[in-house]
Amino acid sequence: MLKVIDSDHEMREFGQAIGSVLGGGEVIELIGDVGSGKTTLTKGIGLGLDVTDSVQSPSFTINRVYSARDDLELAHYDFYRLDDSGIMSDELSEAINRPDAVTVIEWGGLVDGVLPDDRLTIRFVSPSETTRQVEVIATGDSSRQVLGKLSDDSAA
Ligand SMILES: Nc1ncnc2c1ncn2[C@@H]1O[C@H](COP(=O)(O)OP(=O)(O)OP(=O)(O)O)[C@@H](O)[C@H]1O
Ligand SMILES: [Mg+2]
User: Fold this and answer.
1) Domain locations in the chain?
2) Which CATH architecture has domain 2-126+144-155?
3) Fewer CB within 10 Å, N- or C-terminus of the chain?
4) What is the pLDDT of residues 37-61, one digit of tens each?
């Protein structure tokens, strides 16, 4: 799926649409430059998961965990400032293996080996100050199901 998104508000709405079709156990990898909208999209995913806390960039803390609907949790990671994945990769794999967690990862290059083969990969490109091209790719059966639901919703 390829989308052009013209405002940060629209980016949150797209994230909300993604969050709404998640049921737990999903892993979502966000790839794009600084300021391309990864955290903004994650705020929207939080909305779609009925997270009531405000979702903030976890740049300094590496990760933040939020309570979500249906006894789910949103686990949000940002490895930008980490130069040794060490203990964080254990933490991350624990979240990834939990069926009640939705795991969202920014700057996951360092922990690539920990990420499951089946995941949603979302690539962000910023052709202008306010325009973002977002490409959503599914790499396995369960991520393909999520992408299918998302496409059905946006077709409706
Ligand atoms: N169409 C758009 N979609 C998303 N964000 C936009 C858009 N247009 C402008 N912006 C702005 O771009 C910035 C995106 O910031 P955000 O924190 O989401 O980026 P990020 O990819 O998480 O960056 P970092 O790698 O530093 O964590 C915000 O300031 C937002 O207001
Ligand atoms: Mg960010």
Assistant:
1) 2-126+144-155
2) 3-Layer(aba) Sandwich (3.40)
3) C
4) 999 999 999 999 999 999 999 877 8
